[in-house]
UniProtKB/TrEMBL annotation:
Key word Disulfide bond present: yes
Superkingdom, natural source: Bacteria
The organism of origin for this protein: Streptomyces aidingensis
GO BP of this protein: DNA biosynthetic process
Reactions mediated catalytically: a 2'-deoxyribonucleoside 5'-diphosphate + [thioredoxin]-disulfide + H2O = a ribonucleoside 5'-diphosphate + [thioredoxin]-dithiol
Name this protein carries in UniProt: Vitamin B12-dependent ribonucleotide reductase
Amino acid sequence: MTETTSGSARGSRARTAKGGKAAAKGLRFERIHTTPGVHPYDEVVWERRDVVMTNWRDGSVNFEQRGVEFPDFWSVNAVNIVTSKYFRGAVGTPQRETSLRQLIDRVVKSYRAAGEEHGYFASPADAEIFEHELAYAVLHQVFSFNSPVWFNVGTKQPQQVSACFILSVEDSMESILDWYKEEGMIFKGGSGAGLNLSRIRSSKELLSSGGNASGPVSFMRGADASAGTIKSGGATRRAAKMVVLDVDHPDIEAFIDTKVREEEKIRVLRDAGFDMDLGGDDIASVQYQNANNSVRVTDDFMRAVESGSDYGLRARMTGEVIERLDARGVLRRMAEAAWACADPGIQYDDTINHWHTCPESGRITASNPCSEYMHLDNTSCNLASLNLMKFLKDDGQGRQSFDIERFTKVTELVITAMDISICFADFPTRKIAENTRAFRQLGIGYANLGALLMATGHAYDSDGGRALAGAVTSLMTGTAYRRSAELAAAVGPYDGYARNADPHRRVMRQHAEANAAAKRMDELDTPVWAAATEAWQDVLRLGEKNGFRNAQASVLAPTGTIGLMMDCDTTGIEPDLALVKFKKLVGGGSMQIVNTTVPKALKRLGYQDEQSEAIVAHIAEHGNVVGAPGLKPEHYEVFDCAMGERSIAPMGHVRMMAAAQPFLSGAISKTVNMPASSTVEDVEGIYLEGWRLGLKALAVYVEGSKVGQPLSAAKKDAGKDAGKDEGGAAETEPAAQAPAAGEKPAEHRPVRRRLPKGRPGITTSFTVGGAEGYMTANSYPDDGLGEVFLKMSKQGSTLAGMMDAFSIAVSVGLQYGVPLETYVSKFTNMRFEPAGMTDDPDVRMAQSIVDYIFRRLALDFLPFETRSALGIHTVEERQRHLETGSYELSAEDEDMDVEGLAQSAPRQPAGGARPAAAAEAAPAEAHNSTELAEIQLGLNADAPLCFSCGTKMRRAGSCYVCEGCGSTSGCS
C-alpha cells in the first residue's frame, strides 16, 4: 500500500516540499507493496469466470455475465457480488465492465486525477505511486471504499461518494415537505438519511391559527410511506432512514409507542392469514416500518432515572415545561417497546456533543440510519473500511504480531483518498454540498475484528480482546487525524476549522488522554498502544501548527456488502457468526468448512497440530467446541460466537463497544442481540450501562420480538412468549383482551369440511430417482384441494404404510383449513432418498418424493401468483421467462443494483459435473452460513430473508447483509 510521508518525528512519514508554489506543497509517497516499473495487476494470476445469477428456489436464471476477469484468489462470493453490484454498463454491450481491473481503474484513476488537480501530490511520480498503491490495496482486499464509490465514481452519473446523510427539519410545512423531497433524492442515490424531528411542535401545542398541531409522529407517516415506495438506488431493498426525537419532547410517549402498536397490528393480521413477513405482500399496509427510531436522552434525564425523580417536557416554541413525567417510567416504557419490537434505540446526547469537534457551528442532533455517523445537520460522510486480518503477522511458529507499520501507512493512504473524493463529489442537495465541503467529514473504519480476536487467541468478551480492539481503533483514528493535519499543511484546513479550532483541539486531547489511560494487557496490544500514543502526540503537535483538514475522521460502519467484497469473516465490530461456515466452490457447488481462524487460534494457544486436527474435526461434526478432545475448558471462550451453544452475552457486546468508542470520531453501528429469555429489566440494564460506559448510541434486539421474521414454531411458543410472562411486559397487553373474572376464555376451534361422496380428482403417475408411484388428488366441487392419496411399493410394506399415514394426515389438515401453500412451503426442498430425475417435464429434478409431490400439487392447484412466489413454475413458464425476459433483468435495467443468488465458476464445458465431495458436503437446505448455522446448531436465527434471492441474511451492524448476493437491509 501507499505511504503518505509526513514531517513527523519518524522520517518514514511524508514531508511537505519546501520552497515551491501550491503544487510543491503536496504530499510525497513511498512505495510499500508495489515495485517501480511493475503495475500491481501484473503481479497476480488472473482467471476468467462465468457469473450466473439464479434463484435458488427454482433454478431460474435472473442474470448472467460470462468471462469476467478476477484474480485467482478471489472467492466465489466476492466475484459474484462485485460483478452483479459494482460493474457498470448494460449487460451484453461493449460498454459493460468485464474485469476487476476496469472497476479499480475507473475509481482509482478518478481519485488520482482529482488529487493532481487539487494539489495533493508533490510530483507526478508521487501521483503514480498513490495510484499504484491504492489499486494494490483494493486488488488484494486490504480495504474498500463504501458502495456509492463503486456505483458512481468514474461514470456519467452524479459522482455521489457518501453513504451517510443527516438532514434537518424545521417547524414549518415548507420545511417538512423539503424533508420528504430530500430524503427521496438520497434514497434514489442508494444511500440512507437520518434526522431529528424535535423542532416540530408537538400535538399538545397550538398553531398560529388556533388549532392543535399535528405533531412529528403524524408527519412520520408521510415520510415512512415515501421511503417504502422509493427503492434505494433502484434496487430491490427498501430505503434506510433514522428518525430521532428528544426525550423532553411533549410527544415522546407517542413516539416510543409508535412501533409497538404497529407490531400488534402485524400479529393480528398474521393470525388472520396475511403475509406479514419482512418483504411480504401485506407488510406494506403497516406504518412506520421503514425507519429506525431512536430517543435522544441527556445526562440529566439518565441521572433522574438513577435517582427516581421526574423531568419536564418542554414546548417546542417557547421552551416552557408543559408536563412532568417520571424519568424511570419513561425509560421503562422505552425498554418495554424495544423488548417488544426492537425500537426505539437510544442516543446519549451529552456524550455525543462532549466529543463534538465543531460545536460553534451547531449541535449534533441526529445520526445516519445505522447510528455510526454523527455530526452537523445537512452533512454527509463517505466511508471506507480496513480488513484487519490483512495486518496480522505470523512467523509460522505460533508467534503473532499486528503489523503496525503497514496498518499506519494504509490508513494514511486511505484517508488521503477519502479526502480527495470530496473535491469532485456530487451531493443530493445544495445545503449538504456546502456543509460537507466546508467540514469534510470522513469515516474510516474496519472489518474482521471478530476474526482477528479469535485468530490471536482472544475471547471477544475478555479484557485482552477489548484491549487489542481499543488499541487498533486508537491507532487508526490517531493516524487518520495526523494525516488530516498533514493535509491541512498541504491543501489547507477545513473551512469551519478557524471558528472551531479550540473545541477541535480539545477533542483531540480527550482522545489522547483516553489512549494514555487505557489498560495494556499483553505483548500483542502493548506495541499497538505505544504506536497509538506516538500518533496522538503527533496529532496534538501538528494540529496546533496546521489545523485539520477534516472535522471528523473515523466511524465503525456495518461493512455489509464491502465486507463480502473483501472476503471478511466478520463485519464491522461484530464477533464471528458461528464456527462452521458455508463456502461456495469455484468449481461449482458448495461445502461446509470450519472457520480458518480456528486453527490459527489453536496454534496461538499452544496446541500441537495433531490436537488441532482433532478439535477441528469435533467442531465440524458438532458446530461448537464443547467437549472437543484435548481442548481446555478455559479456552472455550475464545471460540464463543454470535450464535450457538456458547453465544456471547449481551453485556459482552456492550463492553466491546465501550472499548472502541473513546477512539472514534463518530459512533458504532451495532445492535446488541439479546436472547428470547431476556426481560424488560435486562433491556433497561443495557441502556443504563451503555450510558455509564460512555457509548454514543445503542440499539437492542430481543430474539423473536419481530413478527416480520421467519420464526420456528418452537421459538414462538417457548421463547418470546415465555419471556413475556416472566419479563413483566404482559401488562402492556390491552386489558380488554383478557376474559372477565371467573369467565371461561372463549375457544376458537377449526371446523372440518368434508368432501362430498362424488368429488373431482386427478391421478398422476410419477417416477423419482427410479422409484415409481401414483398420486390421486381430489378436490371440492367449488375448487380447492381436499384429499391426497399416495400409492408406492407393495401393500403391507413399511414405505406403503408410511405413505398411507402421511396421506391421511395431509388430507385431514386440508379439510380443517390448512392452506395448500403452507404444506408446499414446508415440504418442498426436503431432501432424502429416493431423489433425482423424474419423468415429469415440469419437475425434472426432485430432492425427495415429498418434494416432488408438493411441487406437483402446487402446479395443479395453486394460482400462478402464489406458486411463483414459492419459485414453482411449469416448463412453459420457464421457457417464456427465457424468451421474453419477464423475470430476467434486461439491458435497460442495468442502472439497478442487480441482486440475486449467484453461482460463479470458471468456464467449463456444458454438462460438466460438479465435484461429488462438494455436492455431498453441504446440506440441501443451506444456502449461506446463517442457514448452515441453523442446521448445525439446531436453532433458528432471527434474521429476514433476502429480498433478492430468498436466503436468510446475517447481522451486519444495525442492519442485515445477504452473503449470497450482497444485498443489505438498509446499509450501503
